[in-house]
Inverse folding.
């Protein structure tokens, strides 16, 4: 039985959709025909909803893919060639890099199919179909159920739905909640496991401007990389094999050379990760005033240490490039998010809305009974969450994602646990093999000297910035023994621990036996990770889980009451890593008083930023030569090669690599970032300044053709002039 709320909510959407802001929202592809296509066509879109999403014919959805689970990519040839961001492929490029073959610095271009590089573990996933399964998910759920009973029944129903959807095929399936758990959709996917690196520009192009330009407009970053999907001879997913053949997609995007101008229609089609547009003021207050400040502070220290190490040694630069990029991206985003929330007075506006909502609720006895306790209970729960969430996140930032030797040490617990029972020789053999395999990847990108500096700094910060009652006992014991000066014990730890040296680690695992457990239990890194997890399990996680679960239940009701109260508003669902459509137009913006940014950049701007003394601004000599000689080919607009453009599409993390599509359905760009002034759009969309930043596809073609000399790749693309 579909809930009355859902039917009411969808009625609201149908009624209000024509009045929605065109620049805001991440829309469900299945529902474009009902809610969005008319407005899209009024803005200039020339195709139909079925050209975007269909299960009956090849369409755009068949060329859009989830890349590696955290980015988006799109197929641009009938031979499985795909394009995504350079920063999305960064980890794979880094894995292939060494001092002898520094593909991060020099770039990589396969000049034939035989030269393409395999990437074990990398998958790309296509959506085959989606369906509203709210009826089936809610089957058997009653008002009389406790929260635990309700969740158990819903989870059981979802498991059965997933099972049936994946029976008799090679697909996978999952069910995801929308509107804070008021609606559910089933997604059926097909994943490919043989994905090979085809091409990537040097970081001086693909990461031009580095962290300085990240989240900033104007941008001059050639943020793209190329991969190819391979399949078995039946065109179905297959493990890597030299006998595999390029995947033949149902659809690939034609590429436009026509260019863009301000006001042109744009559509972004991708996998946005997570937004929180409908949360109460208490949540925004927690993020802005309790969580972000602590995370910014500790990330600043980590980045400073890693930055200095990378600048001191070329090998360390290769080892830590991907790690630093991941740290810096969130760090800078949090800073911009806080500034944006402050500038927009988001907390005050939400409180004002909640005050009016409360008045409306209190005007009706039935509404008081249904919704009167939501906001007061939020206040109580978030007062607890304001303490618990930062403790959990900060502790993880130090021990799991900070000091690498500590985080790595937890992997050995599964082997040690096998000796607490009757030893199983086969299980022990498998556990050892897995640990030895993981060690190769870990130590390839590990520098003990850098990690030692992180250890000293992060152990100190943990002791200074969390109250003693939130510090693990083993940490307090170590802190006491060294009187808070972790530099006194760092050298000894890093010289002796099996977790800081590959030779020591492999020898230890190779000869591991029952007596090795005793030695392991004397290693401070291992003791710390065990005790920290034990402490969190006893003192933080249960209460954090309980509070979060109750807030989740309140969220469902809060979503309901917002919909009932604000009937003129269109409530698009928050992002949740499922395929979405956003649309708008090419548009500049006023950054601050007297400063207006036009919506595109060119190679001329790259030359103006050139600085050989700074790694991130050292323009390759070949690119400078191409510019001096004006050897631009057909990739120009007004005499210059375009690099990036901005539009007012609503995007977030996960949209990196998403295709940007024009009114004709042709690829004009690859989405990769947002402008600094509107980066708070995950919580509060700012129509005057929220802008997505995209690579102009003509710059990618120019680099492939003129810079890399890999123009043969263009021969397999469908290029529209």
């Amino acid at each position: 039985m579909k809930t009355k709320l859902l039917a009411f909510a969808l009625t609201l959407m149908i009624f209000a959709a024509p009045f929605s802001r065109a620049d805001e929202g991440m829309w469900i592809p299945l529902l474009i025909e009902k809610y969005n296509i008319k407005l899209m066509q009024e803005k200039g879109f020339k195709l139909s909803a079925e050209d975007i999403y269909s299960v009956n014919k090849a369409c755009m959805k068949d060329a859009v893919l989830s890349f590696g689970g955290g980015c988006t990519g799109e197929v641009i040839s009938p031979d499985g060639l795909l394009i995504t961001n350079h920063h999305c492929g960064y980890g794979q490029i880094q894995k292939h890099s060494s001092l002898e073959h520094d593909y991060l610095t020099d770039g990589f271009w396969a000049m034939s199919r035989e030269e393409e590089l395999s990437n074990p573990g990398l998958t790309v996933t296509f959506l085959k179909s989606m369906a509203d399964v709210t009826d089936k998910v809610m089957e058997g759920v009653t008002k009389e159920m406790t929260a635990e009973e309700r969740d158990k029944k819903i989870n059981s129903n979802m498991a059965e739905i997933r099972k049936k959807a994946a029976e008799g095929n090679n697909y996978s399936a999952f069910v995801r909640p929308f509107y804070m758990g008021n609606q559910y959709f089933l997604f059926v996917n097909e994943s490919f496991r043989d994905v090979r690196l085809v091409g990537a520009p040097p970081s001086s192009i693909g990461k031009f401007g580095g962290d300085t330009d990240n989240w900033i407009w104007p941008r001059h970053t050639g943020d793209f990389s190329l991969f190819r999907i391979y399949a078995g001879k039946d065109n179905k997913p297959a493990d890597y094999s030299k006998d595999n053949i390029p995947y033949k997609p149902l659809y690939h995007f034609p590429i436009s050379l026509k260019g863009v101008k301000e006001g042109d229609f744009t559509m972004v089609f991708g996998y946005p990760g997570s937004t929180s547009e409908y949360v109460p003021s208490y949540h925004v207050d927690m993020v802005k005033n309790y969580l972000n400040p602590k995370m910014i502070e500790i990330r600043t220290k980590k980045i400073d240490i890693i930055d200095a190490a990378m600048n001191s040694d070329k090998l360390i630069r290769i080892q830590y490039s991907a790690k630093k990029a991941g740290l810096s991206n969130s760090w800078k985003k949090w800073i911009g998010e806080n500034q944006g929330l402050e500038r927009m007075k988001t907390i005050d506006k939400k409180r004002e809305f909640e005050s009016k909502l409360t008045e409306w609720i209190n005007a009706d006895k039935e509404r008081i009974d249904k919704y009167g306790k939501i906001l007061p209970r939020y206040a109580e729960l978030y007062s607890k969450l304001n303490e618990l969430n930062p403790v959990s996140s900060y502790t993880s930032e130090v021990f799991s994602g900070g000091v690498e030797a500590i985080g790595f040490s937890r992997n050995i617990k599964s082997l040690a646990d096998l000796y607490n029972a009757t030893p199983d020789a086969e299980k022990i053999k498998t556990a050892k093999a897995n640990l030895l395999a993981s060690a190769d990847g870990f130590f390839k990108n590990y520098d003990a000297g850098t990690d030692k500096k992180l250890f000293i700094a992060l152990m100190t910060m943990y002791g200074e910035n969390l109250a003693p009652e939130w510090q693990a006992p083993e940490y307090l014991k170590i802190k006491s023994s060294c009187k808070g000066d972790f530099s006194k014990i760092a050298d000894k730890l890093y010289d002796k621990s099996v977790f800081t040296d590959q030779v020591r680690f492999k020898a230890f695992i190779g000869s591991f036996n029952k007596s090795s457990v005793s030695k392991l239990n004397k290693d401070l890194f291992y003791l710390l990770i065990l005790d920290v997890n034990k402490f969190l399990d006893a003192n933080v996680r249960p209460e954090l889980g309980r509070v979060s679960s109750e807030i989740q239940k309140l969220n469902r009701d809060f979503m309901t009451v917002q919909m009932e109260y604000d009937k003129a508003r269109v409530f698009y669902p928050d992002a949740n890593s499922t395929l979405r459509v956003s649309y708008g137009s090419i548009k500049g913006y006023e950054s601050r008083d007297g400063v207006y940014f036009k919506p595109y950049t060119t190679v001329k701007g790259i030359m103006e930023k050139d600085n050989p003394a700074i790694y991130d601004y050292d323009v390759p000599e070949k690119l400078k030569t191409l510019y001096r000689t004006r050897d631009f080919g057909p990739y120009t607009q007004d005499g210059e090669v375009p690099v990036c453009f901005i539009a007012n599409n609503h995007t977030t993390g996960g949209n990196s690599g998403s295709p940007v599509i024009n009114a004709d359905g042709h690829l004009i760009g690859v989405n990769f970032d947002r402008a600094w002034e509107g980066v708070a759009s995950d919580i509060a969309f700012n129509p005057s300044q929220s802008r997505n930043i995209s690579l102009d596809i003509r710059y990618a073609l120019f680099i492939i053709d003129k810079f890399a000399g890999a123009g043969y790749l263009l021969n397999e693309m469908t290029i529209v002039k």
